[in-house]
Predict the structure.
Amino acid sequence: MTRTRKEIWGLGEAWNDTVLWYARGVDALQKRPFTDRTSWRYLAAMHGFDEEIWRAFDYLPAGENGPPESDLLSRQCQHQTWYFLPWHRGYLAAFEAIVRDAVVKLGGPQDWAMPYWNYSDTKNPRARELPLAFAADKLPDRSPNPLKVSRRYGTDGEGTVVIRDDDALLQQAMLEPGFPGDASGGTPGFGGPETPFSHYGWMFDPPNPSGVLEDFPHNLIHGAIGGFRRGGNPNAWQDNGLMSMPDTAALDPIFWIHHCNIDRLWEVWLRRDPLHKNTTERAWLDGPVDRIFQVPRPDGTLANYTARQMLKTEDIDYIYENVSDPLGGETRLAARFRNLGLAVPARAAGRTMEETMARAAELIGANAALVRLEGRSIVTQVTMSEAGATNLAASFSASRSLAAGAPPKEPDRVFLNLENIRGANDGVIFDVYVGVPAGADPKNHPDRRAGAVALFGVSKASRAQHGHGGNGLVKVMEITHVIDSLHAGQAVDLRNLNVQFVPRQELLPSDAISIDRVSVYRQGQ
Amino acid sequence: MLGLASLSGWLALASSHHARLLPQICSVPAGSGFDLRTVEDALSINTAAGLVLSWLAMLLAMMPLLLSQPVMHLWRRSLARRRGWAIAAFLAVYSLVWMLAGPVLLALAVMLRMVGQGSEALAITLAGLIALAWRTCPAQQICLNRCHVLPRLSPFSFAADRDCLGFGFRTGMWCVGACWPLMLLPLAADTLHLPLMAVVTLLALKDRVAPTRAPGWLKLS
């Protein structure tokens, strides 16, 4: 039976049937012992598990043990990898089947399906607010609400969750043309860079960036919901929200509703442009070879899966109510050429994108020293190499000097790399601006905004004994639109580029958040 | 490229007598006691240059595959025109650290053969026990964890050179710290020199790609 996943705000009142049965199902799972593979806690530990944190947060009482390190079912979540989307799809489908089984046993509907939270819906003014049922103290029958958790600190540190409009924007993800990317400093791709099994990243390669969808909006939404406790110590995981840390995120019932939307956005991306395709590489379709993806069925038996089995939602018995294109058919290339004042013949768009994807990225500039993020605004200057600046400028000139009738040539794409971000606070979010003149208020220069960065997973990535080997996180942000704007204005010296970080909360020296290097890469010509 | 470099090291070892001088110097006649004269005798038949070449061939065969992570880091994080120089500078200092470690390891290997009264099997067993003891020690895991550290690389001029050289030095030091007992195994062997080199290369590679973890005692895996 194919079931339909529907948008949570569109389901009507807070305690509509779908959400109410979700709450009852969650409650049933929460009552099961940890040792039961279909229990709430076991399913959450499949995403990530840290005994110290779980004990401190009372999810693992004294005398009870969590899954051992050797348990191949736990600690599976895939991040900073091209397996991010297929792994989470299989994980979510297994969770949905287990909840549905519980719902049916409680007398609920056979066709119950997960709702999704479309926080990017521009037609609903309340779309970015936390769905009401998740903040209610009680269920309609006055029993405790299992969907509410106290460690959900939100955007104000006190539990109010309202996603900022620009954190829910889909342009970056939806306009990204290719599925796989790499860690060369250019685009990490819509789906992420090629890696083996990558729980908290793969440590043998240099740290990999997240795919574009994983960063925008996935990580931002995690950080905006989880946040950290106002008045607490932002430098301590004890004051982080559940959703801020990969090891606790799946303990918050909103996690699953969020990931349902991320899974839907994969479908939206595939359908909105015929050039958008999943990779056909066998390493992705049939991998990873170093550790298998495994989930429990409702009866507790285990099922293995690969990306190949996750390609069509219909094959996993669900579809989405709405997979329409939120950008009305806009393509990255068309948007760029329009900004540059160039005409875009439709026939050239696909070829140019493929050409762009085929080219390795190249470093063209970097700042002079490690950056410590302290205070409310931090500025560093990226100096371009002579050759880098010349080649970048030449790519703009080439795009304008083509003979009449020749297919358009796209100038280089440009990417800002924040290399080896380390810190202890997973709940931090900061905005990044490029090319704002010294002393100017970046808020007055929205066209210079590169985007925002959420440090979901940074604390573990910064510790030498965990997956990343202590190298922290790498964030890659496309700044092509900013460079285009600067190039058109010719008011800023592109050889020396200010990069400004504006944290959402004041950062203290004790936060110990640092960025080894801020660099700029070009990719394309 | 790194695979080809490793292959060239193996070919040199397999095809050249001079490339296998190291196991020969460690060979002490069966039944010999701990006598420095046997070392002097062995040294007299091997030139210093030959020993250096032999050690270099071993390093060339065994180390390149362990360096894919730092070399990739240097490639991706350097300006295009500096990539070759950055990798060469790193490799030069990294190799220098191992070259300096060579005489110490050689002396230890000779001692093992002497303690073993010239018995290759006993010397290998002793080297194996040392390697096993080191694996149970937190110090090895500390070294392995540090091998994964990828530092900031300055993009321009002197600072870029300094960062690449420093990266090579630190990686070399942590690599020696993690692998020195393993290297004793092929050095203590004669007839089994090449097979043990192959085994040790695989073991070192396994250690290198394994996830970093908290240092602790008695983690034999």
Remarks:
- The first strand of chain A starts at residue 3 and ends at 5.
- DSSP finds 13 helices and 15 strands in chain A.
- The longest helix of chain A spans residues 84-105.
